[in-house]
Amino acid sequence: MKNELIKNNIPGAGILLKTHKSQEVETSMLSELHYHDEIELLAVAEGELFCVVSGKHYHCQKGDVLFFSARIPHSTYVENSACTYTLIQFRPEHFLGDSNNTGKYFNRFVRNADLPFAIFKNQDLYDMIARASEEEQKQEEAFDLYIKGTIYSIIALLCREGALSASNSAYSADIKKILPALSYIDEHYAQDITLDDVARLQNLNPSYFCRVFKRASGSSFVDYLNFVRICKSEKLLAAGDKSILEIACDVGFTSLSYFNRTFKRYKNCTPTEYRRAHYENR
C-alpha cells in the first residue's frame, strides 16, 4: 500500500479536481489500495462504482458522494459498467486555518477524524462538486476563485454532516493544557526546542507535561515537534529553490540523515521523491 502524493491542478489552492470516465469492462481497478494526507470526495455522475475500505466492499451509484478522511486506506474499481465520476482531494486545514485554536497541525497528527468514511446521498453536496467540475473544465476567468469558494461550502456541509469538525467543543482538558505548547511549536519550530523549554513555558514539571501530552495526542512531544517540522518542509521542497540540506536546517533539523529518516517515517517517501512528485503549482 502506498502513500499517494497529490499533485494539484487548481492554481495556488492545494486542490486536485478531475472528472474521469472509465471504460465498460468486466472488472477494472481504478485505484489500488492507497492513502494520502488529503481528504477525498468522489461524486458518481454515471454508472456504478465500488470501493474497498477496511476490507469491506461498498456499491455506489449515480448521485452518491463518497467521503474518505485523510490517511484512510481505500481502493476503487468498476464491474461490468462504464462509470463517470469527479474526484476532489484537498486538506481542510488549508481552508479552515486555526479555527480550533490549536496548533495548525495537531488534528492531522492525531488523525482523529469524526468520520473516516461515508457515502452521502446529498443532492446539495453532489451539485457543489458538479459545479466545481464544470468550472475546472471550462477554466473561464477567475475559475480558481470560484472553485476555492465552492470548497468552503463543501467543508461547511461536511461539518454539518459530521464528517469534519470546525469547533473545539469536544476537546479534552488535556488538549487545553497543551495549547500554549502547540502554538509555541508552530511559531518556533526552526529553533532548538527542548521538552524542558516548553514545560517551563507553562510552569509544568517536564515529566507531568510529557504524560499530559501523551494522553492528549497518543504520542510524544518529540514526535509532534518532528511532525510539524516535516509539514513545514513540504512547501519548501515543492518550491524547489533550496537544497534539501538547506531545507532541513530551515525547519530545525541539525542532521540531514535524521531529516531524511524522519521524513520517510511520516511521508513514506524520501524528500527527493516528494520533491519530484510534489503537488504544489510553481
What does this structure look like?
By secondary structure, the protein is α+β, with helices and mostly antiparallel strands. The protein has two domains: 2-160, Jelly Rolls, CATH 2.60.120; 173-276, Arc Repressor Mutant, subunit A, CATH 1.10.10.60. It contains eleven helices and nine strands. It has helices at 93-96, 106-110, 123-138, 143-160, 173-188, 195-201, 206-217, 221-239, 244-250, 256-267, 271-276; strands spanning 2-3, 16-22, 27-35, 39-53, 56-61, 65-68, 74-79, 83-90, 117-120. Strands 1, 2, 3, 4, 5, 6, 7, 8 and 9 form a nine-stranded mixed beta sheet that branches. The protein is globular and about 60 Å long.
Question: Which superfamily, in CATH terms, is the homologous superfamily of the largest domain?
Answer: Regulatory protein AraC
What is the structural class? alpha+beta
CATH class of the largest domain: Mainly Beta
CATH topology of the largest domain: Jelly Rolls
Flag low-confidence runs: none
N-to-C order of helices and strands: EEEEEEEEHHEHHHHHHHHH
Question: What overall geometry do the principal axes of the alpha carbons give?
Answer: globular
SSE diagram, text form:
Layout: E1 2-3, E2 16-22, E3 27-35, E4 39-53, E5 56-61, E6 65-68, E7 74-79, E8 83-90, H1 93-96, H2 106-110, E9 117-120, H3 123-138, H4 143-160, H5 173-188, H6 195-201, H7 206-217, H8 221-239, H9 244-250, H10 256-267, H11 271-276
Parallel strand pairs: 1-3
Antiparallel strand pairs: 2-8, 3-7, 4-5, 4-6, 4-7, 4-8, 6-9
Helix pairs in contact: 3-4, 5-7
